[in-house]
Design goal:
Layout lengths: L2 E7 L4 H10 L3 E8 L10 E5 L5 H8 L4 E4 L9 H22 L3 E7 L23 H20 L2 E7 L9 H6 L3 H13 L5 E6 L28 H5 L9 H4 L15
Parallel strand pairs: 1-2, 1-4, 2-3, 4-5, 5-6, 6-7
Helix pairs in contact: 2-3, 3-4
The structure holds 1,4-dihydronicotinamide adenine dinucleotide and D-galactaro-1,5-lactone.
GO molecular function: oxidoreductase activity
Keywords: NAD, Oxidoreductase
Pfam families: Epimerase (PF01370)
Length: about 270
């Protein structure tokens, strides 16, 4: 299975750099895009620098692509005025371009921050109510709803990946639960790109960690089985001092995001 041309947005970012090599086998041509500078195009690559908030540029970016892995956007809590450009207008521009040019499938990097205000320890699934923990989480929640609309109205399939914490290693106790290894991330994206019938799916992105707060039974059709576990890092993580249990960062699934801001932008 291979696409003719696959688009990867956010290619200059942490996960974009990881997936740049790992998605290569899935397409004849991998088109890479970001607002930031990327390393020059290698064999089988195209590099297009563009701002997701620029509708015309995004329209041209998507033309010719059969599928999209959408990682581009602001990835942390920021003032609404910034989030609205990159994440809200950005995801709208992307789906409009997909509709206009006939791209059939999107893997959308949503986030655990759409459910960040659920208490730690509570088990959630795809149908649990969303409780975004900030403007960033709200923008991902919008992206999930927007992609649902483009599926219902136009049949564009999307997997919304509610990624936990995808870094080389978990950095704290919370990430022992939310960690998603790069290998498991790659396998999750592969499953979403190639499952015969994707539909519109919500799937949590975490490795096979000893403790988890999310379950993916409603996304079983993807055939995703994580292989890694954060357990190998436990001694290192637990050598750090624990947060005060009254700290909201220790109480809610979104961790420190729940206490970011407010931002004074007036
Ligand atoms: P990152 O911040 O390293 O990468 C995001 C990329 O998007 C950056 O290279 C940035 O330049 C680009 N970008 C920002 N604004 C843009 C704009 N207006 N137009 C075009 N490009 C723009 O983030 P990371 O960690 O690589 O995450 C990738 C995606 O996955 C993001 O959408 C993030 O929200 C999501 N995610 C990541 C998690 C993680 O643990 N790494 C967890 C949950 C979600
Ligand atoms: C996210 O959504 C962020 O993009 C990432 O930088 C991490 O902070 C992650 O969530 C997390 O919750 O650990």
């Amino acid at each position: 299975d291979k696409f003719g041309r696959l688009l990867l947005t956010g290619a200059a970012g942490g996960l974009g750099k990881v997936l740049r090599d790992r998605l290569k086998p899935f397409a004849d041509v991998l088109r890479l895009s970001d607002i930031a500078q990327m390393s020059p195009a290698g064999r089988g690559e195209e590099v297009v620098r563009c701002d997701l908030a620029d509708k015309k540029a995004v329209d041209a970016l998507v033309q010719g692509c059969e599928a999209i892995v959408h990682l581009g956007g602001i990835s942390v809590e920021r003032p609404f005025e910034e989030i609205v450009e990159a994440n809200i207008k950005g995801v709208f521009n992307l789906y409009e371009a997909a509709r206009r040019h006939g791209a059939r499938r999107v893997v959308f990097a949503s986030s655990n921050h759409v459910i960040g205000f659920h208490p730690q320890g509570e088990m959630l699934d795809a149908d649990s109510p969303r409780r975004p923990d900030g403007y960033y989480g709200l923008s991902k929640s919008f992206g999930e709803d927007l992609s649902r609309f483009y599926f219902d109205r136009y049949g564009i399939e999307t997997a919304c990946l509610r990624i936990g914490s995808s870094f080389p290693e978990p950095k704290d106790r919370r990430m022992m639960v939310t960690w998603l290894s790069y290998a498991d991330l790659t396998e999750l994206v592969r499953c979403c790109l190639f499952t015969p019938k994707l539909g519109h799916a919500i799937v949590y992105g975490m490795s096979a960690n000893r403790t988890v707060w999310w379950e993916n039974s409603k996304a079983a059709h993807l055939g995703f089985t994580p292989r890694d576990s954060s357990e190998q890092f436990r001694a290192k993580v637990e050598a750090q001092p624990a947060l005060d249990p009254s700290d909201p960062a220790a109480q809610y699934q979104g961790g420190a995001f729940v206490k970011a801001g407010p931002f004074e932008t007036l």
